[in-house]
Amino acid sequence: MEFFNFYNHGFVRLAVGIPVVRIADPAANAERTIELLKEAAARRVALAAFPELGLCGYSCEDLFAQSALLRAAREALLRVREASAGLPVVAVVGLPLELDGALYNCAAVVHRGRILGVVPKTYLPNYREFYELRQFASGECAHEREILLGGETVPFGSRLLFAASDEPLFAFAVEICEDLWVPIPPSCYAALAGATVLVNLSASNITVGKEEYRRELVGNQSARCLAAYVYTAAGWGESTTDLAWDGHGMIYENGTRLVETERFLDRDQLVTAEVDLERLAADRRRQGSFTQCRLQHLAQIEVFRSISFRAELARDGVLLLARRYDRFPYVPSDLRKNEERCREIYRIQVQGLATRLQAAGLQKAVLGISGGLDSTQALLVACRAMDQLRLPRSNVLAYTMPAFGTSERTLAQAHRLMKALGCTAHQIDIRPSCRQMLRDIGHPAAQGAAVYDTTFENVQAGERTSHLFRLANANGALVVGTSDLSELALGWCTYGVGDQMAHYHVNASVPKTLIRHLIASEAEREALGEETSALLREILATEISPELIPGRTDGQPAQRTEDVVGPFSLQDFHLYYILRFGYEPAKVAFLAWTAWHDCTQGEWPRGEPRAQYSIAEIKKWLRLFLRRFFAESQFKRSCIANAPKVGTGGSLSPRGDYRAPSDSPATVWLAACDAIPEREPSSSCLD
Q1: Among 85, 166, 274, 281, which residue carries the largest CB count within 10 Å?
Q2: Dihedral, CA atoms, 33, 35, 37, 38, nearest 10 degrees?
């Protein structure tokens, strides 16, 4: 299998073609359609959709009653069929077809010199500027299930499902324009019948504001049906006797717009996008209500006829995604909505903690403050929770607990942060109690030996936790945990201590990259003042570390967490696609390489250092992630404290998103990881 080819990772490239139309000139329109079809083949497209009645023009009006035009439209279709014989692309084209004395507005599906099927329009608009019932009959009026077209018998009907025999996830259905605008579009039933791709051949004239309504309509339908939706509409060349046309095409995937045409363009255009069929399948598996809905509509689903064809996807050779993947899937990527998203996350965290304090009848919170990212975010949330409850911030009892590995930098940052936020600040030196514990258990470090093993580290972590819980008892308070989603995923937390155990967690469903972004966003708030903002930026620049081993004297911690568990930016990417979609390791690596192999492209979130990773580095850190996530860490997650879920990317709560056995091996995932290459594709392949 060619690793660097998106067709081998569950993607399919789709296209929207909008040719400039010549009204009532099917031969000319067929040639333009064929040229775009050839371009689609050159771009390795699997399916290309063209506008409603595009072989003759939607705005022909009463010319549809002319036999000469109907004959020319059929001949144009056969010309497209002939040209398709040498092209591996499925073409969906629009034309009028006469059957049993009635005229139907149809979409013909053409592939490899065959007409696979013809789908008539079901719902005909006959209001305001639309007058389709004057010319056409609804597809529901047709009794024939097959028609003779160009010497071949072709399936005919509004309930056709076209399924690729060589790609089980690629199945599509077609509806036409108004079919999407009704309360229950035919595509709803098509999706329940198994269609992962929904195609709409539309004309849709333009009026002010209509383009945004189309986006909402197509986006919502793709999300509701957990499907890809390909929408193509008439453009330049249609008659402007009474209407105007903008050529608005788009492709959506489960509510997300992947690509859109340039509206009002006075030349032919073809836009493409890669749709992730595996994502759609994963969403349907997880959303049980989708299957329940299928059971409720079996009568509508059973009437679908499945038409098999070989898609002949271009699986050989290097074929990279043109689709952009965010390097930070947990971080808001829309800059216009960025601030609102950050405010919403804070609201969720604050509401969770404030509600828990009220329910417990407590007015104080205890936190351990390290001067690092997680405890900073937890302290910001705790102070806001006190504001929400109209309690003084002095009710937040914050403690620094320096031990053997605490750096001067983080200790100073912790004290400055506590002062800036107005909480009650304390310091407890836990080194004496740690030394006592080391002596009690006979550890060599008690005698001055430089033995910095796991026991040495966990003695410090355990002492901090013990102090926090007893301080909570003494003050009638609740211990607020600081553990984040990334560390829980990687098992980078000690069982039974503060980064795994608390009375309530606020960061447990917030990954490290998002915490960094939230703090960076907070640093830009003018209300904080420049001094506090500068402090938050300083915290962001501090190396992530557990600070349990003595070492460096330059102010930075001696340990670097990312040297052990990998860069959180990359591991959060792995976590998102494994937890959210359950992807195979090879696909996760392919997406990671797509996003991370070139650091010169795209935006970078606030607070994130620039980085790039080769496929060898991605494989190395993904393998470590798979081992720690699947085989080594579930027992820690099975008993974590309560915490609010923040995002749709999922959480690891055993009571919510993720339930798994604590003693399963990672054999399957590690074996799959072995198949990932360690060499990049050659530069000639990338050109």
Answers
A1: 274
A2: 170
Segments forming the whole domain that contains residue 61: 6-309
Mean predicted lDDT score pLDDT of the chain: 93
Looking at the fold, whether 362 and 275 belong to one and the same domain comes out as no
Is residue 512 flagged as an active site residue? no
* Residue 513, domain member (yes or no): yes
327 inside domain: no
pTM over 0.85: yes
Q: Check whether residue 411 and residue 305 sit in a common domain.
A: no
pLDDT bracket for residue 88 (50, 70, 90)? very high
> Which residue among 39, 52, 238, 463 is the active-site one?
52
Q: Are residues 350 and 298 in the same domain?
A: no
pLDDT digits (tens, 9 = 90+) for 326-345: 999 999 877 677 888 899 99
The per-residue pLDDT for 602 is: 64
Residue 326 falls within a domain, yes or no?
Answer: no
509-558 pLDDT, tens digit per residue, is 999 999 999 999 999 887 788 999 999 999 999 999 999 998 765 666 77
Cα–Cα dist 416/433, whole Å: 25
Q: What is the bridge-based pairing of β-strands 114-120 and 102-111?
A: antiparallel
Rounded CA-CA distance 570/595 in Å is 10
* Residue at 448: amino acid letter: G
Closest CA relative to residue 108, chosen from 155, 167, 44? 155
Residues 6+ apart with CB under 8 A from 477: 362, 364, 365, 366, 397, 471
Kindly tell me the sign of the dihedral angle through the C-alpha atoms of 467, 472, 474, 475: positive
Residues 294 and 346 in one domain: no
Number of separate helices (H) and strands (E) present in the chain: 22, 20
Return d(Cα 611, Cα 288) in angstroms, integer: 39
Residue 687 confidence (pLDDT) above 60: no
673 is known as an active-site residue? no
Q: Is 458 exposed, middle or buried (0-12, 13-18, 19+ CB in 10 A)?
A: middle
Let me know if 52 is a catalytic residue: yes
Nearest to 43 by CA among 4, 12, 79, 3: 12
Residue pLDDT, tens place only, 345-370: 999 999 999 999 999 999 999 999 99
* pLDDT of the residue at 239: 86
Using a pLDDT cut of 90, give the percent of the chain over it.
83
Residue 331 lies in a domain: no
Q: What are phi and psi of 681, to 5 degrees?
A: -65, 155
State the Cα–Cα distance between residues 75 and 79, nearest whole angstrom. Answer: 6
Which of these is catalytic: 60, 177, 225, 383?
Answer: 177
* Burial of 469: CB neighbours in 10 Å, binned 0-12, 13-18, 19+: middle
What CA–CA distance (Å, rounded) separates 395 from 478? 11
Question: Do 154 and 143 touch, CB atoms closer than 8 A?
Answer: no
Phi and psi of 584, rounded to 5°? -65, 150
pLDDT in tens, 179-201: 999 999 999 999 999 999 999 99
Residue among 228, 219, 222 nearest 277 (CA)? 228
pLDDT at 684 over 70: no
